[in-house]
Amino acid sequence: MEPTLRKPPRPIRGAALPAAITLLVLALALLPPLVTAYNLTKTQTRMLIAELDRGRTDGPPVTADELKDRQAAKTAVARLLGSPQGTSASDFGSEASAASIGADSTASTLDSGMIQAVERVGADLAGAGTLGAALASPMGTLAAALAPLTGTLGAALASPPGILAAAPSSPPGTLAASTTVTVDPPPSSPPVSPLTVSPPAVSPPAASPAGPLDSERLAELKESLSEGQGALWAGHGLLLALLCALVSKRLTGRYRGLLVNERNVMSLSRFQTVIWTVLLLSAYYTAASLRAYGLADPTAALQIDMDWQLWALMGISVTSLVAAPVIHAQKQDKQPDPAAAAKLDPEQVAAGDGILLAKPRFQDAAWNDLFQGEELKTAGYVDLAKLQLFFFTLVGAAAYSVLLLQLFGTVPAEELGQLPTLGQGFLAVLGISHAGYLASKTVDRTQTAGD
User: Fold this and answer.
1) Which of 20, 127, 353, 389, CA to CA, is 20 to 30 A from 36?
2) How many domains does the chain have?
3) Could you tell me the mean pLDDT of each successive run of 10 residues in the chain, 451 residues long?
4) Quick one: where's region Disordered (predicted)?
5) Judging by beta carbons within 10 Å of its beta carbon (0-12, 13-18, 19+), is residue 271 exposed, middle or buried?
6) Same domain, yes or no, for 234 and 144?
């Protein structure tokens, strides 16, 4: 049986549809900056930013009038919602290590300085006559004895205040009794200045430029900054869906033509691919556009993390879209058995494409094609594999839409750095449903010629 040639209706010509598509693109481009500018410069946001910014110590706080400038408001929001600028634990550890090294160096300097002072006194006394000669040797001994003591003193001074290591005191020496020495007056020598030792100063870690923020006021600021963002995402999703419908109308003459395959039948694999594409693309575009107009540094606008589960979701969806026509191609090359075809609807058999159901006109495609069997024998029955995949797709898309509404409705642009994940459980269930959908297509339910 020769397959009939089925063509879609003539495309719609004229300027109305291109103009409508242009307006949709303009709406997609203009809505994000309008919403962002309103949220940044409205009175409630400016008052909250000014109130939270008063605790800053690294510069004068901004005023509500200064925040009328959008760039100033972006900078203030980045300062309040960004990472804290205080000294981290690693920085503090580095400072403490540097202080310890400086203290050790100071202690070593003290050791050598005290020993040299004692030796200098002994040298001065050595030229003072017999008494100097008698005392010069004990001074050298005293210098040698003080060497370990000054090390103890230096270590005590370098340690944190609180515990001062007590240096051991040497037992008083014995003065030789009944010794009378007559000496000439020693020449005047410069007085030895007393050695003054002060503990090394250790600078405390720098204080954070801003104190802890009021959590309630900060939550109010985030709510004020994210007002209308959920509705903006929903609007973007609807605009993208409408844009797809207008392109389909332009090319096929039908708004739902995007979902119709080459057999003039509504395709479930096309339907679920369009659903997930519009959902994820609108979410990414909304987050990126809000960050582009809301961040002080717009170069980071596209730095949005998408979990591997989202990539796996798109992979599963596209796999079904590509694998379904491959399976159909094998069935299109088969012809129904004449005895079996006599029991089927003659019109369906005449319009069929191999053993697959096909419709003679593009306009005959209907929504019930998403649930009925694809072969001539199963055309009048509900395909449970299709029904299961349809509801899993619908429920999953609805649940993820709720997550996106919550995300955009509560998180400002400064913190929109990641899209919500689906969860491995749902991803596994959806993957099994797609696998069952494709496996069901591989089974021939219509008896073919030669069987």
Assistant:
1) 20
2) 2
3) 51 68 88 89 86 70 79 83 44 39 44 52 47 45 49 46 42 42 49 49 44 76 90 94 91 90 93 95 94 87 90 94 93 88 86 90 92 90 94 94 94 90 90 94 86 64
4) 168-213
5) buried
6) no
